[in-house]
Amino acid sequence: MATPSLKNIKACVFDAYGTLFDVNAAARAEQAALGDKWLEIADVWRLKQLQYTWLRSLQRRHADFWQVTGEALDFALASAGVSDAALRGRLMNLYLTLSAYPEVKTTLERLKSSGIKCTILSNGTPDMLAAAVDNAGIASLLDGVYSIEDVGIYKPDPSTYQIAVDCLGLAPSEISFQSSNGWDAYGAKVFGFNVIWCNRFDQAAERLPGTPDGQIKTLDELPAIVGAT
């Protein structure tokens, strides 16, 4: 997938978890307690978290992302044979302060200095996102933090991407959307955004409609693509 040069981009909209914030950071911080199961638990936790968002959307049984995250963690711990209420509580608290990837702050600074608006559009609840943004020290670099709770259904439902269009007052063609999640990147492209897939984990291309415009490994490649200095 070639890396494009996008024109007339007025805003960059970022997914949060896995794109700006390291979803493995919570389990990694508890390696002493989880032992060599920590990465397995982190992977299952993330997988079930995503699966539950899709399944709840299909079932029309919405629960917010904090509840879904807790239910996914319960599944992951049970699958690994771990039963520890105190540990579970620590992991959930750590999820509120996931570390940002190293290039996030400088990327946002470069985009902002070029006059490009920067926002988050995430499955996370407003409280979860506020905690992560504050912990990363990037609040001043963001022009908005949008949660799918405004529409009560999870990405990739088209109504979730419409949130960014409505809040920014821009056409989809004026927005570049970034996600590390292939399914999210493809969904956003179907909606009509310019899309750069930040494929941090070297995932194979999805077999879905909506091939992204380009693919990068880390976000520090983005400013050049959207014409930021």
TrEMBL record:
Pfam families: Hydrolase. It comes from the Bacteria. Keywords: Hydrolase. It catalyses: an (S)-2-haloacid + H2O = a (2R)-2-hydroxycarboxylate + a halide anion + H(+). The keyword Lipoprotein does not apply. InterPro entries: 2-HAD, HAD-like_sf, HAD-SF_hydro_IA, HAD_sf, PGP-like_dom2, S-2-haloacid_dehalogenase. Its EC number is 3.8.1.2. Gene3D superfamilies: HAD superfamily/HAD-like, Putative phosphatase, domain 2. SUPFAM superfamilies: HAD-like (SSF56784). Belongs to the HAD-like hydrolase superfamily. S-2-haloalkanoic acid dehalogenase family. Catalyzes the hydrolytic dehalogenation of small (S)-2-haloalkanoic acids to yield the corresponding (R)-2-hydroxyalkanoic acids. This is (S)-2-haloacid dehalogenase.
